[in-house]
Amino acid sequence: MPEIKTQNFSAASAEAILDPKLRRALDRVAEGFHVARLDRIEEVTQETWDGWKDQAREIKVHTIEHLDYYLDLLDKNVTAAGGHLHFAKDADEANEIVAHIVRTRNIKIVTKSKSMVSEELGLNPVLEAMGVQVWETDLGEYIIQLAEETPSHLVAPALHKSKEDVAALFSEKLGIPYDEDIYHMAATARMVLRDKFMEADLGISGANFVVAETGTLVIITNEGNGRLCTSAPRVHIGITGMEKVIPSMQDLSTFLRLLPRSATGQRITSYVSMTTGPRRSEDEDGPEEFHLILVDNGRSKLLADPALRESLYCIRCGACLNICPVYSRIGGHAYGWVYPGPIGAVVSPMLVGLPKAKELPQASSLCGACREVCPVNIDIPKMLLDLRKKTAESPDSSLRSAPETERILARLYAKLMSSPRLLKMAVKFGRFTQKLERMTPVFSPLTQDGKWIRNAHIPILSRWTRSRDLPTLPKQTFHELWEKELSRDDS
Amino acid sequence: MTTPKSGSMPGTPKAEFLQSVRDALGRSDVPPAEAYPRLTETPAELEQQAAQMRQRLEENLPALLDKLAQMAALGGWRVHRASGPEDAIEYIETVARGAETANVVRSNQDVFNQIPVDAALTNLGLTVTTVLRDGTTTRESLREEIRRSGIGITGADYALAETGSVIVLPRKGLARLVSVVPPVHIALVQAEDLLETLDDLFLLRRLEYHQQGGEMGSYLNFITGPSRTADIEMTIVEGVHGPKEVHMIILG
User: Fold this and answer.
1) Where are the domains of chain A?
2) Which among B23, B203, B242 has CB closest to A223?
3) Do B12 and A182 touch (CB under 8 A)?
4) Which chain B residues touch A189 with a CB distance below 8 Å?
5) CA end-to-end span of chain A, whole Å?
């Protein structure tokens, strides 16, 4: 698996939020994808859209509840079509399967179309260590590979790079003159990769869906690199998570309507490519061998947890990223692992281990926008709350995300708020200290302008008041007002 | 990474993997209690649905052809409604003149019997290669011809009004690469290729699969407009790895 940096979420997000270039890039994505998505929904009507969403969810619920049955059916039909299905319990095993195929088929050059699961597995370094040339061919992935970085978005992996960044990168790595014309840069990628498609022995793709009924792998793409990767080399390996299976070919209609509209605001992508086994003997071209690798790699933990199971319905459209007030300010890298944004904050902790990623469930204002845009109605905020609960209530103190002082304060606060007598006493005490502060303006650790508690200089409070202001106590509390008014009415 | 045992394919055996899934689901090996509706129809039932579908298409043909043209244009196709074979050929000649290429490759599909493009293109001085393996043509030489070609011409196995897509089912005579490698792709759509919705298409695919005893061919591709990317600053660039220019000629 690639390096896990989820532990650094606080520091990384604090840094990212101050990066104006990143902010501009994220704004572009929000405008581009999100607005187009809304246009597409308006076009088909909200009612139709909601109907599609319900259908999609129904299909996913059914499939995941019977995942063993459909994996078995898929295996039978991939095999019947002349392909090979492999099950991998973790990243190492998946990488070993690919390595074994590479070794036994004497593979030297690999072209890859976009696959988030292969990012999750950390496949490229494994292949490179074997002396194999690996070429990412999706333009965004190609840029990321040249820059030796990781994707920052599920759909637009290089969104954090400006055209100047890419021009400098191409100039440095490809030895060409600096040229920041986006059309020229895309043409350069076409030229460089064209030969690689034809020379490659192995094409690796992900899968948006795999159809159990027919053993078919479906990829949804725009650039054409996916078509080339699945057509030109003599071996094709598809790698995906075990949750991507759907029962029937006819289930695809619903997902093909939802996914492009949710992801990029397109009615349909330029290409939808469906592979069923290797090329048949009479075919003009296509791979001689077809392998499908289905990966668990922590997914069974999500499956086993009723509160988190629905995260496996995700079709990786990225709509929740584009709408999220947290993602759209900090971008993908701050999340510290392959899957960013709201869905990443649910999935990553379970795939890399909650102790390492305990801060991610906090990366949400629980505003619910992610739930609203999800094409399969996944209740992400509910799952984030569940994960927060798991971290807060764990007997293992290393799992808890809040420092011990915060927990003690919260407990005291709970005591205070549940006892009217204590609350009254506290208010009186508070007023007294505020009066003292006003009398000694030189020493005033809490209040500012006599109105707000802002940037308190007391260590345990300062983390709170750094980003939040508290009003000072009013002259009269609601309780006191109520008692006064009530007694007047009675008289 | 640990070194795999020599000779044997690494991975978890299916039985073990499925058991771990069952363990996670907290139950034993039981199939779905209720049969899944989209898996249970018999070929006869699917055939009946397909017959109803064909009737619906026939009744709405002119409107659906309009819809196809409209959606295709929205998807980025340059759409030409041809009045007849001569008109279609004239259009192809115009495209060929603008394409700055000496080589054209075309699939070997029935539609070329009605639209004989070879003579017209040869008259323009172009070399036309047909996807046809015989004694002298191998897969390798065919691939080289496709790479050399500036234009690829194919028929459509289906055309989808809902999305404005051409659907190709690569097979003998129809190489996968002929519609993706050349920078210009021309797709010839006949009225009988028309389907209305995605559901229509997948119904027919399932029907074919089951009628042929579990065989549906190795590949299917939807093509909707040119190849495109927005990976640099969300700026849409056409023709990144696939064709930059795509023409849909609708006959009928």
Assistant:
1) 6-300, 404-490
2) B242
3) no
4) 240
5) 75
CATH 3.40.50.10420 given to domain A6-300? yes
Instruction: Tell me how far apart the 2 most distant CA atoms of chain B are, in Å.
Output: 71
Nearest C-alpha of chain B: how many angstroms from A396? 23
Cα four-point dihedral sign A213, A214, A217, A219: negative
What topology is assigned to B41-251 in CATH?
A: Rossmann fold (3.40.50)
Question: Distance (Å) from the C-alpha of residue B145 to the closest C-alpha of chain A?
Answer: 13
- ipTM summary value: 0.96
DSSP per position, A459-489: HHHHHHHTT--EEPPPSS-HHHHHHHHHHHH
Amino acid at B37: P
From A455's Cα to the closest Cα of chain B, the distance in A is: 38
* CA–CA gap between residue A23 and residue A44 (Å, rounded): 32
Residues 6+ apart with CB under 8 A from B217: A276, A280, B169, B170, B171
Q: What one-letter code names the amino acid at B128?
A: V
Residues of B in contact with A190 (CB under 8 A): 239-241
Tokens describing residue A289 = 């061998």
DSSP B139-190: HHHHHHHHHH-SEEEEE-SEEETTTTEEEE--BTTB-SGGGTSSSEEEEEEE
Helix, strand, or coil here: B25? Answer: helix
- From edge to edge, which strands make up the β-sheet containing A235-241? A84-88, A289-295, A235-241, A202-205, A109-112, A133-136
Q: Which residues pair with A245 in a beta bridge?
A: A210
Distance from CA of B155 to the nearest CA of A (A): 16
Looking at the DSSP bridge assignments, the partners of residue A247 are none
Give me the total of CB pairs closer than 8 Å, taking one residue from chain A and one from chain B.
280
Mutate to test the interface with B, among A254, A284, A294, A297 (most CBs of B within 10 A): A284
Give the number of C-alpha atoms closer than 13 A to the C-alpha of residue B233, restricted to the C-beta side: 15
pLDDT along chain B (252 residues), means of 10: 64 98 94 90 95 98 98 98 97 96 97 96 96 85 96 98 98 97 98 98 97 96 97 95 98 90
